[in-house]
Amino acid sequence: MPADLLFTNGVVLTMDARQPAAEAVAVVGDRIARVGSHDDLAAEMGPAARVVDLGGRALIPGFNDNHTHPIFFGQSLRTIDARPDAIATLAELQVAFRAAAARPANGSGDWLLARGYDDSRLDIGRHPTRHDLDAATGGRPAMLTRTCGHLAVVNSAALSLAGITAATSDPSGGQIDRDAHGEPTGVLRENAMNAIRALLPPPTRSQIKADLRAAGERFLAYGITSVGEAAIKTSDELAAYQELAAAGELPMRVFTMMLIDDTLDALARLGMRTGFGDAWLRIGPAKLFQDGSGGGRTAAMFADYRNDPGNRGITIYDQPGLNERFARAHAAGFQLTAHAIGDRAITMILDAFEAALTAAPKADHRFRIEHCGLCTAEILDRMARLRIVAVPQPSFIYELGDSYLKNFTEEQLALSYPGRAWFDRDIVAIGSSDVPVVSCDPFVNLRSAVTRRTRDGQRMGPGQGVTIDEALRMFTCNGAYGSFEESIKGSITPGKLADLAVLSADPRGIDPEQLHTLRADMTVIGGRVAYEA
Prior knowledge:
- The chain is an alpha/beta fold.
- It is about 30% helix and about 25% strand.
- The chain folds into two domains: about 110-195, Diaminopimelate Epimerase, Chain A, domain 1 (Roll), CATH 3.10.310.70; about 205-525, Alpha-Beta Barrel (TIM Barrel), CATH 3.20.20.
- The radius of gyration is 23 Å and the shape is globular.
């Protein structure tokens, strides 16, 4: 059958071990039809075909960013950008809040919202306080979320609306920071943020869809064709995805992680489970959060943070609570996953996974640990034995690694997000960004996975770097494996979906330190050119 789209004269990195490299690819409809040499495919062109001369550039499977927050990403594009690249000082942060306070209220009602600050990179070297925000917010309630999303600062108006005072107890799985007099400083950790979130006007389904479209445009511009939505909590969130998919307007392919406490009972009653859906939108694992972030020092550790004596982070559930939730989700037919960064949190998740599998064995379960940050030799042994999938974010090393170097010991960092150890032990490691925690730029992710370079030029666990070929696998075929979709995507193989990315150069021929200079020149999804530089 004549091709509708033909890529030729390039370097095709197929991610298919049976045919690792080629020169040309023919696409018919939404599928890859043939993969081979320029001469082999020269006769494939149909009368209306588009021929893309790669000119020596690389063609790869579309990137699979396996752990993202597209809804929050879209929302973040319409809030104050407090990331270190945008705001470096408290004074600049206050200027941004004053400017926002002077504008009419938007979809967030009267609230002023900002996201992305990193206390370790602010000039003051600490978290802002409610008093810092009070000076710039004009009495409107305000919330400033840290880059990790596991800690936020709110002003006095927000504390008052939430009823948080010196007499308020810390909630289970959360912490209210207090000053020397016992008064809240405005810093809220983990579940302590829930009292504030409950006050924020929920976005309409129409706004969620607009946010998803905005996020999708960014994904496609990076060559990302598939993402994992890491936290579906409400029916409106899932319905927004469904409506876009039904209308043919979903920009990227999505599998969804369903939060157990919020969605499992309803889904189980309907008989819905992991795998329900189609190639555009599919139900993924049942998920929960077990701890916080390493940079924010809320990841649950066995030992004190080296620069914060007495602090071992926060656990959200006790072991019986974890075991019970995962047992129910496993029995209902769900793949299991959890957010766990600290070694104590990871160990608790492995205990719960093992309990679920002992009670109801399943050979190909593909249970996952999202982030899987601070590992130990014992953790790695158990992951290999239980065949647990790791879902790290290599860009954390670049964006957040300098704070990790302050918070953790050299011994702990030697097995932090341990790419080399995972590959050496045949533990499937899947690449992702966790956007908007950090950028979804896959090329920074590739550089981070290979070089372990932090923003300040240090090396975090330098012995854990992987090869560029392994890094590409993390963001292509391994991602498809993580959602049980390796039969339809993740490699350039005849019969699979034509989800492709044209890169500005062959990543194998670039100095690893320069991988971040790569760009996506074209993104194809389902045989359709969805982005072109």
